[in-house]
Structure formats: C-alpha cells, structure tokens
Design a protein that fits this description.
The protein is an alpha+beta fold. Helices cover 22% and strands 24% of the residues.
C-alpha cells in the first residue's frame, strides 16, 4: 500500500504552499511502480484523500478526461516491455476538478488546492 501523508513533505500540521503561492498542497502519496497497481490508482487514491472520500467516489469528471495517466506512467516510470526503469526526470502537472495534481519522477503524487478563489 502506498504511503499517504495529508501534510506537507516536511511534516508538521501545515501543508506546504508551492512556489507561486496560488496552490496549497493538501495531500501527497508515494507511488511505487514495482508494488502498486498503477499510476491511475495512485492518483485516484490521492484525490480521494484530498476530498475526504472513498476512491470509488472520485468519478466526476472521469480521470481519463483530465489526463492520460498511462502515458505519464510510461514516460516517468517504465517502458512498454514492462521493465521498471527511469525514463525521465521531472514532473507532470495537470488540473483535476478544483485540484492541481503533480506527478514526479521521484514517485510522489501531490494534490494541491487553490489558496484563493478563482476569479470568473
């Protein structure tokens, strides 16, 4: 089971605020390609943690409408032959509902929420 943390990466009670101060990290979850069921599941579990709901309740919109998690997984963590290798170094960020989701080549899936309401 992946490690999940509802605080910032340095621990403590206050989630970290990312570099542009428009997003506040609320959850991070470690994805381990050799052990976990897939990146899609890790992302859904992290979003569910952020929302305080069961993973089966994360369905609006469907994750595949926001991002191609299989392509991210292939680019960052593995090859088409099934061997786990580091294909890239970096991270991919995308919006899902009201969240900013970041997947890093270090395996951390981070979910952030806006620090202030968006203007129409």
């Amino acid at each position: 089971m992946p490690k999940s943390d509802k605080t910032g990466p340095n621990g403590g009670d206050d989630p970290t605020v990312d570099r542009d101060s428009q997003w506040r990290q609320v959850v991070q979850r470690l994805y381990e390609p050799d052990r976990d069921g897939g990146l899609t599941a890790a992302i859904v579990f992290a979003i569910a943690d952020a929302e305080g709901v069961a993973p089966t309740e994360v369905n609006s919109p469907p994750l595949y409408e926001a991002v191609d998690a299989e392509r991210i997984e292939q680019a960052l963590f593995g090859s088409e032959t099934g061997e786990t290798v580091r294909e890239a170094t970096g991270r991919v960020e995308f919006r899902y509902a009201d969240y900013l989701v970041s997947v890093g080549s270090d395996g951390w899936v981070r979910v952030s929420e806006p620090t202030r309401p968006e203007r129409p």
